[in-house]
């Protein structure tokens, strides 16, 4: 369906044309004076210079020539030359009825579906998920669902950090603790045990212990680096331990993401890119895209238009080791070969922006991805505590995501428990659902690139721009509809009549914006705009609810119409 704002604009554009002005001046926007009107057009002001006329004259002229008037209800020219528009309520009601009949609720989706790969989540295997991983998961999941809703084909890849130094650390610590395991016996040629020699709980203790020791103990660190090297070069025992780490850690990650209601299609990781590296390096060298720089291999990515220095993208260290950029370039080769994406979207901490600028430029320059493939970096800001500093536990450590979720669930449970009328189990279940909404909405409602303050009290409040407030509104709506249907009421369309109530009309106009908001949110990869919309819509509904008798309305036609909204 066409957007309601475009329908209004078409009517105004016709009038501009009839009055002898160019249609392009007829741009309509939402009103920034909602007390005066609902939509506005400032085209008369823009045209004043060109047509050498006072803006107010043009505005009046346009209004006089307005002949097709369906969506435009009242229209007025005001000094210095604004055109203020109020929508015809009956036409808005018709629009809502058409939305109701439309399978996409008025959202048509794209005519040219794209293949989109999304890279988000990005947890590091064997390290617990921390609050920093929340944003990528929440924003990524939202954009994935939105892209699918728009009709695109999307593959969500978690892109595990599964190939780094943390693996060497764990292998080293395990060897220290249990040197008799067959993985560390160089003469062993038999099969390794199926079962991992550790549980997830143990693994989560082993990693920080190893990491702390490596910081103090030079020899230990050397050994961990060597173990990393052995793993990356196919050592049998190290590979077997690595497989155990993967198996134990990935099943734990799956559980955690499932709790967040976040789902990936691909559980690939940095390790999957390794097979592509040798050929890539070879090609970068022979085709002259990369050159040696103090023993390392780099690709220059500086462009003339840059205002600041963009250092080269390093693809190999002087000792032959790969780097983060090497893996990301090789992953692009794999993605190109397997999925031919039109667009790849990375949702990663904004502090990694430079890395992605380098990787994207290097990939284009070296022909790893075609020129027309769109590569987008969507960087997100930090979740801060109430002190404005990165969110920490009370003890000052990194907050585990699991604990954060538990904390918010607990807070929610306290609130429910204070005046609960349901069984304990039911209250716990509700606290979980509402708690998750508090967390996800609290995160998603902030513009991705901005830092934000995580405030449990605010996020779990049933008032204000919060997940619980939105859910509360939905429950209120469902309860009205249930009561209506239980007493034999039948759902039908809005009744087209004279004299809509102000709150009723305001709610209709909010609802009618659905397609526009969804399209904009996708185009701009800005899911927070959907949150802002849901909040406005909820406010419009609650105002309507408070000002209108719905179920007790005596005029049957009106009542049907209210229910339909
Ligand atoms: N594992 C990385 C981290 O924790 C994030 C990975 C982001 N994705 C990528 N393709 N580099 O910082």
Structural features, described:
This protein has 565 residues and is α/β, with parallel strands linked by helices. Among the domains are: 4-87, 2-Layer Sandwich (Gyrase A, domain 2), CATH 3.30.1360; 401-459; 467-564, Isoleucyl-tRNA Synthetase, Domain 1 (Orthogonal Bundle), CATH 1.10.730. It is built from 21 helices and 13 strands. Strand 10, helix 13 (353-365) and strand 11 (374-380) form a beta-alpha-beta unit. The longest helix has 24 residues, at 236-259. The protein binds arginine (ARG).
Net shape = globular
Q: Kindly provide the name of the CATH class of the domain at 467-564.
A: Mainly Alpha
CATH fold-level label of the domain at 467-564: Isoleucyl-tRNA Synthetase, Domain 1
Strand content: 5-15%
Mean pLDDT score: 95
What distance separates the N and C termini?
Answer: 18 Å
Discrete helix count: 21
In the CATH hierarchy, the architecture of the domain at 467-564 is Orthogonal Bundle
The largest sheet, given as strand count, sense and whether it forms a barrel, is:
4 strands, antiparallel
The structural class is alpha/beta
What's the SSE blueprint?
Blueprint: H1 4-18, E1 28-30, E2 39-41, H2 43-51, H3 55-64, E3 72-78, E4 82-87, H4 89-101, E5 115-119, H5 132-149, E6 153-157, H6 165-177, H7 200-216, H8 218-232, H9 236-259, H10 270-273, H11 277-286, E7 291-293, E8 296-299, E9 313-316, H12 324-339, E10 343-349, H13 353-365, E11 374-380, E12 383-384, H14 401-418, H15 424-444, E13 452-453, H16 456-459, H17 467-486, H18 502-512, H19 514-523, H20 528-547, H21 556-564
Bound molecules: arginine.
